[in-house]
């Protein structure tokens, strides 16, 4: 509450009120001062209410404020009893009533100003229905409504122009800038004319330039026409391709089809299209029209705040709750005429919903098929542009697939040969590495033996000595021995390599067989895996279909059980109704007048006669009221005039009494002076 009062004081101290209040002075205001302050705020929102409340009666002030608050859609808190307390507090100027109103008004002053301005023109005057029977009054009321609609449209256009961001100052600046550019262009044209006039044959040159400009424009238009014709040609080719594709499909369909199947298909299409035209599309069109009507109605309403929307949502929830309660009461109530057809209505509604769902699914499937056909045509055209050949179909595609399979088998064989050669190359490469390692080991052993014998670098030293001594024979002999040793060593190594090859040959042969067997087993495993996946998918689909069938059968069983129970209930109701009908017939045929009076037909006959008599009396009374309406209105007018006349007399009498009382006081004062 303190925050509320502080907010009110801050707003009242600002423009346009400028009250210079603080919390203490505002809290110490009396009831009349609070009412005047509330009236000042209302007068700022609507200038018609800028009056002094001391010059009018409290009832008139409260009535005027309540009417304006109702137009501004102020909702006082609480229930109906609190509403009467709110009216009483508004008349007496109670602080708990005035403070929330001031807080609400000062929070949204600009919005409420706009609402009050619109209410001045959009609050419709309620004309009684008997007055609207007059043609003149009806025409004037119609013109009044048309003017109200025109005002709504103009106000919307004005708000759109205000929110569009264009101001008059910007438009004026743009106009002035355009005028300046126009003047500059005129000056440039004049200067160019003066320059051209000095040139010989300027008229002919101007004519040639004009013709050049016309030819350029014509060239641009021709280029545009050429592009349009290219586009039209492309679209025509696409249409031709679609038509050819449809023709092929129709040929394929006609080859294997019969007239009965074609007629059945055409009947299904006709039934579907007639359902769309007669039921689905009109229903959708009607719903769209209703939604458009409600949207226009919402647009025509003045702007609403979040609080108004919350109130509307609360009202909607309350109305929905009431509707649900009424539906439950109606369902609980025994109504045999409605219960007869409830089952059939339910089944019909279920069938209609299923029909609508299937129609929507069919429409979506057709749209998807048409989009897929368009994509196929695009892909076909792209393939023709890239490869220049048509897409394979039917037997050609099968032949192409068989050719690819034969190439694939040939490729696999060559790949196996390459793998075998690669494996053999790896073995030889490994053998070479082993020989190199053994050669390096032998060299290291030779070096170690030389070091051990103390003749490290013997060969190098011996060569140097032979070269120094120039004994060629010894050198040749030494070289011969060295070569013999090396040849013997190479022979030994070759023999060892041959032995290793001979020992490894069966292992390599067995390894090749094992690799080939491994590849065959791998291929067989892949084939088995594919078969397993396909079998598992088939079993899964069968399981899902069986589950759906079981679910459908369970639902059908439940439905049949509910139908059985419903039919039993209907049978009991019909038996009861038959018993009542027999009793009614027995009472109606009975010779006893007392029993006959108990019959429902006799009761309704008496009620009809009573209602007819009552209608006759009411029509006579209406006739009397219509005949006496004019004199009664004149009499009311005379009584009102008489009341005004008596009021004037009362005021004159009160004024005269006041004047006589003042005169007596003056006379008494004069007498006292004389006595003194």
From TrEMBL:
Alphabetized InterPro entries for the sequence: IFT81 (IPR029600), IFT81_CH (IPR041146), IFT81_N_sf (IPR043016)
GO biological process per UniProt: cell differentiation; cilium assembly; intraciliary transport; spermatogenesis
Locations listed in the record: Cytoplasm, Cytoskeleton, Cilium basal body
Chain segments annotated as coiled-coil in the UniProt record: 137-246, 309-382, 483-584
Pfam families in UniProt: IFT81_CH
GO cellular component: ciliary basal body; intraciliary transport particle B
Domain IFT81 calponin homology: 3-126
Domain of life: Eukaryota
Keywords: Acetylation, Cell projection, Cilium, Cilium biogenesis/degradation, Coiled coil, Cytoplasm, Cytoskeleton, Differentiation, Phosphoprotein, Spermatogenesis
GO MF entries: tubulin binding
Functional note: Component of the intraflagellar transport (IFT) complex B: together with IFT74, forms a tubulin-binding module that specifically mediates transport of tubulin within the cilium. Binds tubulin via its CH (calponin-homology)-like region. Required for ciliogenesis. Required for proper regulation of SHH signaling. Plays an important role during spermatogenesis by modulating the assembly and elongation of the sperm flagella.
Family to which the UniProt record says this protein belongs: Belongs to the IFT81 family.
Record-given protein name: Intraflagellar transport protein 81 homolog
Encoding gene (name): Ift81
């Amino acid at each position: 509450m303190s925050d509320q009062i502080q907010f009110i004081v801050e707003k009242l101290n600002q423009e346009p009120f400028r009250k210079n209040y603080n919390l203490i002075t505002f809290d110490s205001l009396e009831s009349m001062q609070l009412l005047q302050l509330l009236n000042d705020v209302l007068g700022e929102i609507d200038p018609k209410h800028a009056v002094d409340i001391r010059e009018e009666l409290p009832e008139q002030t409260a009535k005027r404020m309540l009417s304006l608050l109702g137009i501004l859609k102020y909702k006082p808190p609480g229930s109906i009893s609190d509403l009467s307390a709110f009216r009483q507090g508004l008349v007496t100027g109670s602080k708990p009533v005035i403070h929330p109103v001031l807080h609400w008004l000062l929070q949204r002053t600009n919005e409420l100003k706009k609402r009050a301005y619109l209410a001045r023109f959009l609050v419709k005057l309620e004309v009684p229905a008997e007055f609207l029977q007059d043609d003149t009054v009806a025409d004037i009321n119609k013109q009044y409504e048309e003017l109200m609609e025109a005002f709504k449209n103009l106000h919307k256009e004005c708000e759109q122009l205000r929110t569009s961001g264009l101001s008059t100052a910007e438009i004026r600046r743009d106009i002035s800038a355009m005028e300046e550019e126009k003047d500059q262009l005129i000056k440039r044209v004049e200067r160019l004319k003066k320059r051209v006039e000095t040139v010989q044959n300027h008229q002919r040159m101007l004519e040639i330039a004009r013709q050049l400009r016309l030819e350029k424009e014509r060239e641009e238009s021709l280029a545009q026409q050429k592009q349009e014709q290219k586009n039209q040609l492309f679209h025509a080719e696409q249409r031709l391709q679609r038509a050819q594709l449809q023709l092929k499909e129709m040929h394929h369909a006609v080859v294997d089809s019969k007239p009965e199947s074609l007629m059945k298909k055409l009947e299904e299409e006709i039934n579907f299209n007639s359902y769309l035209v007669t039921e689905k599309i009109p229903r959708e069109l009607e719903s769209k029209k209703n939604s458009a009507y409600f949207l226009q109605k919402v647009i025509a309403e003045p702007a609403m705040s979040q609080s108004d929307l919350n109130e509307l949502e609360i009202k909607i929830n309350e109305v929905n709750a009431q509707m649900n309660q009424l539906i439950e009461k109606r369902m609980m109530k025994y109504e045999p005429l409605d219960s007869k057809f409830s089952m059939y209505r339910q089944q019909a509604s279920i069938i209609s919903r299923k029909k609508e769902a299937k129609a929507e699914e069919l429409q979506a499937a057709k749209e998807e098929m048409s989009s897929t056909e368009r994509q196929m045509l695009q892909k076909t055209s792209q393939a023709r542009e890239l490869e220049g050949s048509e897409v394979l179909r039917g037997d050609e595609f099968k032949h192409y697939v068989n050719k690819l399979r034969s190439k694939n088998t040939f490729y696999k064989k060559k790949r196996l040969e390459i793998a075998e050669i690669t494996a053999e190359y790896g073995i030889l490469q490994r053998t070479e590495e082993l020989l190199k390692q053994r050669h390096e080991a032998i060299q290291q052993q030779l070096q170690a033996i030389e070091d051990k014998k103390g003749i490290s670098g013997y060969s190098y030293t011996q060569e140097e000595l032979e070269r120094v001594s120039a004994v060629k024979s010894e050198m040749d002999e030494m070289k011969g021995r060295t070569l013999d040793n090396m040849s013997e060593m190479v022979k030994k190594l070759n023999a060892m390599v041959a032995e290793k090859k001979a020992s490894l040959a069966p292992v390599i042969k067995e390894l090749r067989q094992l690799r080939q067997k491994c590849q065959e087993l791998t291929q067989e495993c892949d084939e088995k895996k594919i078969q397993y996946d396909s079998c598992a998918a088939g079993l899964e689909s069968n399981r899902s279909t069986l589950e759906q069938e079981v679910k459908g059968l369970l639902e059908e069983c439940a439905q049949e059980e509910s139908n059985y129970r419903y039919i039993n209930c209907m049978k009991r109701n019909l038996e009861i109704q038959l018993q009542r009908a027999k009793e009614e017939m027995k009472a109606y045929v009975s010779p006893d007048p007392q029993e006959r009076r108990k019959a429902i037909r006799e009761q309704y006959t008496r009620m009809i006669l009573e209602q007819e008599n009552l209608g006759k009396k009411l029509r006579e009374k209406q006739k009397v009221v219509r005949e006496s309406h004019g004199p009664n209105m004149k009499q009311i007018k005379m009584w009102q005039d008489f009341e005004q006349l008596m009021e004037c007399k009362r005021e004159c009498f009160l004024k005269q009494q006041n004047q006589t009382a003042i005169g007596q006081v003056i006379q008494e004062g004069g007498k006292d002076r004389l006595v003194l």
